[in-house]
Structures are given as C-alpha cells and as structure tokens.
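Hi there,

I know you've been waiting on this one. I reran it after we fixed the sequence typo, so this is the corrected version. Both the input and the resulting structure follow.
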Amino acid sequence: FFSKGKAESMRQERMRTASVDDKLQDLISKSDVITSLLEGQLAVLNEQKEKVEGNLSVTLDEREAVGGEL
C-alpha cells in the first residue's frame, strides 16, 4: 500500500490527533505483539534447553563408561 516511511508518517499523524483511549489501545496492541514474540522466543529457548540437557546426559554417561573402562 504505502512505503514504510509514509506509513509511519501517517501513523504518527493519527497518533497526534488520537484520543487517549486510542493511544492506549495502540500501546496495548503493541504490547500484545511483543508478548507474543517473547513467548515464541521462550518456547524456542526451552526446546534448546531440553536438547542441551539430553546431550549433556549422554556425554556424562559416555564419560562415566570410558572412565570405568580405564
């Protein structure tokens, strides 16, 4: 539709003339987007943590087995 700069300029103009209620709604919607992004990142980090814990467990078991052979 519009270039990024033009869209931002139009948004800023709307915000200048918007009521407090409209501004609050804008902040809430941005907050919801940020929350959603952070929840997604947390899910990815938790998945990676589980993989690392599994790998660490395997590594420690292998180390223990090698130590027992020596």
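Quick highlight: The helical segments are 4-17, 20-69.

Best,
R. S.
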